[in-house]
Structure formats: structure tokens, C-alpha cells
Design goal:
heterodimer, A: mainly beta, Immunoglobulin-like, 1 helix, 15% helix, B: mainly alpha, Cytochrome Bc1 Complex, Chain D, domain 2, 2 strands, disordered N terminus
């Protein structure tokens, strides 16, 4: 019993380190087979390793100081479509400035882990973090990605 | 002997003047005083050109860009009869001869009820995302009508404005040509001389007069009042600054010229060094970017600690904006599209924040900051030089705003740059 727990704990640490490493990669424009009409697709793994977040802005780039919409797909660890409902919250900010977004985007669940996000706004140039909080009931997992917004 | 001494003195004075005439002691004709601009810096400079201004009209105002509305709005802008006592027009504070501001720290039109903030210039106002220093209006037309009823400003009322339009044949004709016939209901009802909703004072005589009017009449009055705002806004949209020496430089510089310092000499060496600082070390372009030199958003620049000052800026502005009966989601907006209001929310971070002003024509738009407390560009930049000392523990900790510690010549170079954001001749609007 003790050995089993220890194994689980060790696996947990290894997995966590793996996902921390994944999260430290910068923006990767990974083309995935998700049904989005948008061109730029970003991907990030949640810190707990439960989810892969795939998101795509409706604009050509992540624009500076212009409102834009996104599609977000919350998938499982291996990018499989999940068969249970989830809640998604989105936050963003500039750590070097110590402020967040000046707006709160509207997030609409479209089913099967797909979400429509309206009204995103990165109002200043520089380094932003974009954070996704995925909740299944009271159990949450978050993913964070760094974005450089240029003029 | 005497003449030789005099000659030597004159030579000395000339030499000193030549040295003083250029910052850092560099001659204006010497390449040493001209900065190199990298490819990235050249591309940043080009983003600041007026050529990048949006061509979009205001969808919430169907009068946007309509020449007849611009003309009608211009007449209204200069008309003191829109005020309660017939003495104050929009132009009283937004004086065309004073860069469409008034050069006063705080305006005191009504000594018993003074304003609390500095009058901003209207140049480039069409490119704002939000209006007023605290962003309590989300369109230029909904901004334009608020000073009419502000008791610190024009101290009038919407019913008085309606009466004035209805009873002045030339204005009534112009209004009806733009907006259609004024409803019979308004023409046949005996309206009070003055009436308006007075927030927080239900016993106010003008409020009492307002609520005695039927809902249908109140709606028609509001319609007419917002149409007046849309006409004034159509005129104010024409107030722009586009053809400055800076724009000429930004439009013409190439990457190769930036690297080799062979760009043409529209700007002085001092202004060029100021530009290098502006987009680099001084960090001005973190907030003052794009063709309007503003992010159009809000920041706390520690002019007053929020708890002592009592002016919460954007924090209160959001409350007022969401309650504004003339905001972009109201029935008076000409657009039914989703609006930026859908994404507005309240956050304690917003306490003490005020809107980033445009820097176009800034040399003529003194004094500076929302309190108007700095009389010169130099003193404003020097404030940012020591800004860390002004942050109090109760303020939101804006880590970006740290003392710049620029040298005196660097401050002067930034001032010289800012002077290039004005047009060479005063435009006749």
C-alpha cells in the first residue's frame, strides 16, 4: 500500500515536471485537426496535466489594443474530445506591469469542450500571460502561456 | 586693445551659444548627434504615423461624416444658447485658439460649483475609445451632451435645448433636414423652460419638472437631445492633427536610412534623440502608441493618492458608464452591434486611473495631466523622472511607472520631439 502510494506520488512529480516544461515553451503555432476557420492556432497543456487547451484568435495575429474573439477547445491529455461538461475562465495580465486586462471577455460554452470567447483586449505592448482555468465541478486545473504583443 | 578684447568676448559668447544650442554639446549639423534607428525602431516609428489612423466612422452615430451634420454641429458647438444662462458654449472651454482646450489648470466657470479636472484638448478626439478623463462615456455623441447639463459647466437642460431648437426657425429647419420632422407631440405640448433628471436629488425643481412629463415626451426629448449630441460629435470628429513634421519623418524614413543615419533632416537632432528615447529607454510608447499617441485606456500616474484625493477616476467612471441612459447599449445608439460595453467590468485596480491623453499638438495643449498641474512639457517629463517617490502604499502598484532618471539633455530632447507633433500652421476647421 505504502509502495503504491509512493509510486503514484513519484509519477505525479514526474508528470508535473513534464507539464511545467511544456508550459514554459513559448507560443507554438501548431496546426491541429480542430474545426476552426482561423489560421493561428496555439496550444498549451494544463499544469495538472489533465487538459490540452487549443485556442485560435479570429484575427491574423494577437492584436495590440484591438478587441478580438477566440475559439478555445479544451481537450484531454492526448487532445481527445472530452465527453463531460467543463467550465472555462480566462484571465490575462502583464506581470512586469502588475496589471490585468481592462476588460472581462464573454465566454460561451458551445459543447464538447468548445468555447467562444468574445472581447479579448491586450491594451499594451509587451509580455502578457494568458491563463485558462478549466473546472469540472469543484476540481480545477489551469494552463498559462506567455504571449508577446507587439506594436 | 579695447576692440580686440570686445572681439574676443563676442567670439566667446558665440561659442557658448553654439554649444548651448544643441543638447549634449553636439552640433545640429554633426552626425554624432543623430541616433541610429534599428529596423525594429523604424517599424515602431512608422506605427506612430497619422497614416495609420482608422478610417472608420462611428457606427453608433448615423451623422458621423455627414457634411450637413458637421455644419449644424459646428453652429451648435459655438452657440452659448445651449447653456442655462446663455453665456457658455462648448467653445468657451474648448477654444480653437487654445488648441481646443482652455489653457487653465481647472476651469471655474461656476465659482460656486467648480470643476475638478483639467479641460482636455479635442484634437484627435474621434479616435478615443472612451470619453472624459474617467471614461464615463463610450461615444463622442453621448459625451457631447453631458456638459450641457453639468452644473459646473453649461448648467442647462435637455428640455431647454429642445425648446431652443423648436423655437428657433433656422435651427429647427436644419434639425428636421437631418433627423426628420420633430414629433407633433413635442410641438403641441407646453414644455417647461427647463427640466432634466437630477441624479441623487429627487426634490430638485428641474427633476420635478422632468418627471411630470409623460414617458413618451421624455423619450422624444431624449431623442432630440441625443441628436444634438450626434451633430456636435460629427463636427468634433473633424478636429484632427495629421500633417506634422513627425509624420513627414515617420512616413519617409527607411530601414537603411535608420541604420546609416542618412534619413532626411525634417526633425532636429535633438528631436531625433528624443524619439529614440520615446520608443526606448524612456518607455513613453508603452502607453503613448499608435497614430494618436495613446492607448486610449487608463493608468494611475500617482498625481494624487487615491484615498486622499477622493477622485477614483476610471473606477467611478465605469459605474457611471454602465448607468448612462445614453450609452452604447441604449436605444439611442444607431448601432445594434455588440459594443465594448459588453466587456467592461469593475476592478479595484482601476481606482485613481485616468485616461492616457493623445500627444498630438501637445506643445500647444498645456497645462498637462488630468489636474492640469504641470505648466510645461519639461516639468511633466521631470515628474516622470521621479515618479517612484509619488506612489503611496494605497495606490495600485503600477510596476511599470518607475522613475526614469533622465538627464537634463535627455529631458530636453523629449520636449523637442513632442514639439514636432504639432502642425506647422494652424488649421482652419
Amino acid at each position: 500500500m505504502k509502495a503504491k502510494l509512493c509510486f503514484k506520488f513519484t509519477c505525479g512529480i514526474v508528470l508535473s515536471l513534464f507539464f511545467v516544461a511544456c508550459n514554459q515553451t513559448s507560443v507554438s503555432s501548431v496546426k491541429q485537426s480542430i474545426p476552426t476557420p482561423f489560421k493561428n492556432i496555439y496550444e498549451v497543456t494544463s499544469k495538472g496535466g489533465n487538459y490540452t487547451i487549443i485556442f485560435s484568435p479570429a484575427t491574423a495575429n494577437m492584436p495590440l489594443n484591438e478587441y478580438f474573439d477566440m475559439e478555445v477547445y479544451v481537450r484531454g491529455q492526448t487532445k481527445q474530445v472530452l465527453d463531460y461538461s467543463l467550465e472555462l475562465q480566462i484571465d490575462a495580465g502583464m506581470k512586469t506591469h502588475n496589471h490585468g486586462m481592462n476588460i472581462s471577455p464573454n465566454i460561451t460554452a458551445l459543447g464538447k469542450g468548445k468555447f467562444k470567447v468574445e472581447g479579448m483586449l491586450f491594451h499594451m505592448p509587451g509580455n502578457w500571460f494568458l491563463r485558462f482555468l478549466v473546472s469540472r465541478g469543484v476540481i480545477s486545473d489551469k494552463a498559462e502561456i506567455n504571449l508577446v504583443i507587439t506594436q | 586693445m579695447k576692440s580686440k578684447k570686445l572681439f574676443t568676448s563676442v567670439g566667446y559668447v558665440i561659442t557658448v551659444l553654439l554649444l548651448l544650442g544643441s543638447s549634449n554639446g553636439f552640433s545640429e549639423n554633426n552626425d554624432i548627434g543623430r541616433p541610429v534607428f534599428s529596423s525594429l525602431e523604424v517599424s515602431l516609428i512608422k506605427t506612430l504615423s497619422s497614416k495609420n489612423y482608422s478610417k472608420k466612422s462611428d457606427l453608433s452615430n448615423k451623422m458621423s461624416g455627414i457634411s450637413m451634420a458637421i455644419s449644424f454641429g459646428k453652429n451648435l458647438f459655438f452657440d452659448p444658447e445651449l447653456s442655462g444662462d446663455g453665456t457658455v458654449s462648448c467653445a468657451t472651454c474648448h477654444n480653437p485658439l487654445m488648441s481646443w482646450g482652455n489653457h487653465q489648470t481647472i476651469t471655474s466657470l461656476r465659482p460656486d460649483n467648480p470643476s475638478t479636472r483639467h479641460v482636455p484638448s479635442l484634437l484627435g478626439v474621434r479616435y478615443n475609445r472612451w470619453y472624459f478623463w474617467d471614461g464615463r462615456a463610450d461615444s463622442l455623441w453621448s459625451q457631447a451632451i453631458k456638459p450641457i447639463e453639468n452644473t459646473s459647466e453649461m448648467a442647462g437642460s435637455r428640455v431647454q435645448v429642445a425648446q431652443y431648437i423648436i423655437n428657433t426657425p433656422s435651427l429647427k429647419a436644419d434639425y428636421e433636414a437631418l433627423f426628420g420632422v420633430i414629433p407633433e407631440l413635442l410641438l403641441t405640448t407646453e414644455l417647461p423652460n427647463s427640466a432634466r433628471p437630477v441624479s441623487g436629488d429627487g426634490s430638485h425643481v428641474e427633476h420635478q419638472a422632468w418627471i411630470k412629463l409623460s414617458p413618451k415626451i421624455r423619450k422624444e426629448i431624449n431623442r432630440l437631445f441625443t441628436n444634438i449630441g450626434k451633430s456636435i460629435a460629427a463636427f468634433e470628429e473633424t478636429l484632427v492633427i495629421k500633417n506634422t513634421p513627425f509624420d513627414e519623418f515617420a512616413d519617409n524614413i527607411t530601414e537603411d536610412e535608420g541604420k546609416s543615419r542618412t534619413y532626411t533632416g525634417v526633425l532636429s537632432n535633438s528631436a531625433l534623440r528624443g524619439l529614440k528615447l520615446f520608443i526606448g529607454k524612456a518607455g513613453c510608447s508603452n502607453c503613448h502608441f499608435g497614430p494618436n499617441f495613446s492607448d486610449g485606456e487608463f493608468h494611475h500616474s500617482f498625481i494624487r493618492p487615491v484615498l486622499l484625493q477622493g477622485d477614483l477616476g476610471r473606477y467611478d467612471g465605469i459605474k457611471k458608464l454602465l448607468k448612462d441612459p445614453f450609452n452604447g447599449k441604449s436605444e439611442f445608439s444607431d448601432s445594434k452591434q455588440p459594443t465594448k460595453l459588453d466587456y467592461v467590468y469593475q476592478n479595484v485596480e482601476f481606482r485613481g486611473q485616468f485616461k492616457t491623453p493623445s500627444l498630438r499638438n501637445i506643445a500647444q495643449s498645456y497645462p498637462y495631466m488630468h489636474t492640469g498641474e504641470f505648466k510645461t512639457l519639461k516639468s511633466t517629463i521631470e515628474y516622470y523622472n521621479t515618479i517612484s517617490e509619488r506612489m503611496s502604499p494605497d495606490d495600485h502598484q503600477e510596476l511599470l511607472l518607475k522613475s526614469l532618471s533622465l538627464s537634463d539633455p535627455e529631458v530636453n530632447d523629449l520636449v523637442e520631439l513632442l514639439k514636432t507633433l504639432s502642425e506647422k500652421t494652424i488649421r482652419n476647421y
